[in-house]
Design a protein that fits this description.
single chain; 191 residues; alpha+beta; flat
């Protein structure tokens, strides 16, 4: 026998031994895992978080002296870690303010509070909302709301018939801004 055939036979014997032992290892491994009992590595977070929330609510009730956990802004402030009230109550006293003189320019706004479906993007996503609007714009807002509803109900995937534009350019369904200059007399009628 030459040297190359010796190496070939020895390699085949090693390979055969490897295949034989490989065939028995999974069987032994399966037997060793049969007796293994799985232990949970983690527990459910729900009960733990509920206990922590209950303790936090009890603490808020003690600090706020209230029966309801979220009865006012003070409970929210305690939860956030930032107090929304001033330390010295005398610093936040609000006075009636000065009366408007006859020489002051008057800015008068007639404002209505309405329920409206607020469409938030050009894909027709919306949520039922509440907003303050100039009373003179209520009819236009209802028309814009109907236009957005029709665009949502249409089969057009681009919602091109909707009334939402990029950057709120001329959209009536948007936050209300009231502007006045310093020294102006501001009169607001809320409906």
């Amino acid at each position: 026998m030459d040297i190359s055939s010796k190496w070939l036979w020895s390699g085949l014997l090693v390979m055969a031994a490897g295949f034989t032992s490989a065939g028995t290892v999974p069987g032994l491994a399966a037997m060793s895992h049969d007796a293994h009992v799985a232990t949970p590595v983690h527990a459910q977070a729900g009960p733990m978080l509920q206990d922590k929330m209950g303790k936090a609510i009890e603490q808020i009730e003690r600090q706020v002296q209230s029966k309801g956990p979220f009865l006012g802004a003070s409970a929210h402030a305690m939860q956030q870690g930032i107090l929304l009230v001033a330390e010295d109550q005398d610093k936040v006293k609000v006075g009636q303010g000065a009366r408007c003189s006859a020489q002051m320019p008057v800015r008068a706004y007639d404002i209505s509070a309405i329920n409206v479906e607020i469409t938030v993007n050009r894909f027709g996503d919306f949520y039922p909302g509440f907003m303050y609007v100039l009373t003179e714009n209520v009819a236009g807002i209802r028309a814009e709301e109907a236009k957005n509803q029709a665009a949502r109900d249409s089969e057009d995937p681009t919602f091109s018939a909707g009334a939402v534009s990029n950057g709120l350019q001329g959209d009536l369904i948007q936050p209300l801004e009231i502007r006045a200059n310093q020294g102006d007399c501001l009169r607001i009628t809320l409906r």
